[in-house]
């Protein structure tokens, strides 16, 4: 059975992100290699990965070079550094909503205060959450049910919804 994973802010090919996000890498080549290895150690060939923005800082042709090295089916929600027509993804969108278990998942690159379903449940069994990137772990996950899935927050690897929700402290 395939799994769903979430991630954001990989910034493949972006040398300055090492300094800007305080990443523990000496070069962009070392960072890219670690991100690819971490991804492939966790994601299977048939898994689905939602990348919530800022996948790559290079030309659209480079996107496909990176996606070809990564396991799984890749769905890109565009971020502010993504090119308009990147290659190597099963779909590209600005905003996306899915169902993952008993959750309605709203995905948008930027953290938003209010999203459809934030204040109510579709029915008593469905809760709505918002997953985003962009902030590189610099904002709190408030309001409740908003989570930064950027690699800087998650040991430089994609995460499942179970891992995200398990990080919430009572």
List keywords for this structure.
single chain; 170 residues; alpha/beta; Purple Acid Phosphatase, chain A, domain 2; 4-stranded mixed beta sheet; 22% strand; globular
Inertia-based shape: globular
Which runs of at least 5 residues are low in confidence (pLDDT < 50)?
Answer: none
Q: What is the total number of structural domains? A: 1
- Number of separate helices: 4
Biggest sheet statistics? 4 strands, parallel
Detailed description of the structure:
- With 170 residues, the chain is an alpha/beta fold.
- It has a single domain (4-166), classed as Purple Acid Phosphatase, chain A, domain 2 (4-Layer Sandwich), CATH 3.60.21.
- The protein has helices spanning 17-20, 28-42, 60-67, 161-166; strands at residues 4-7, 48-52, 73-77, 91-93, 95-100, 103-108, 127-132, 146-148.
- The strands form two sheets. Strands 1-2-3-4 form a four-stranded parallel β-sheet, with no helix packed on it. A four-stranded mixed β-sheet has the order 5-6-7-8, with no helix packed on it.
- The two termini are 30 Å apart.
- The mean pLDDT is 89.
Please summarize what this structure is:
19% of the residues lie in helices and 22% in strands.
Topology summary:
Layout: E1 4-7, H1 17-20, H2 28-42, E2 48-52, H3 60-67, E3 73-77, E4 91-93, E5 95-100, E6 103-108, E7 127-132, E8 146-148, H4 161-166
Parallel strand pairs: 1-2, 2-3, 3-4, 6-7, 7-8
Antiparallel strand pairs: 5-6
């Amino acid at each position: 059975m395939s799994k769903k994973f979430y991630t954001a802010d990989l910034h493949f090919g972006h040398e300055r992100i090492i300094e800007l996000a305080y990443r523990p890498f000496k070069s962009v080549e070392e960072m890219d290699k670690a991100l690819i290895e971490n991804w492939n150690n966790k994601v299977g060939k048939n898994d689905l990965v939602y990348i919530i923005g800022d996948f790559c800082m290079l030309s659209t042709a480079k996107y496909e070079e990176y996606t070809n090295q990564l396991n799984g089916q890749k769905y890109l929600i565009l971020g502010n550094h993504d090119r308009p027509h990147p290659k190597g993804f099963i779909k590209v969108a600005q905003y996306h909503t899915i169902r993952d278990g008993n959750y309605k998942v709203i995905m948008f690159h930027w953290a938003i205060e209010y999203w459809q379903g934030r204040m109510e449940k579709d029915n008593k069994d469905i809760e709505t959450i918002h997953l985003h990137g962009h902030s590189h772990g610099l904002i709190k996950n408030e309001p409740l049910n908003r989570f930064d899935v950027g690699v800087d927050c998650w040991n430089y690897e994609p995460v499942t919804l179970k891992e995200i929700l398990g990080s919430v402290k009572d």
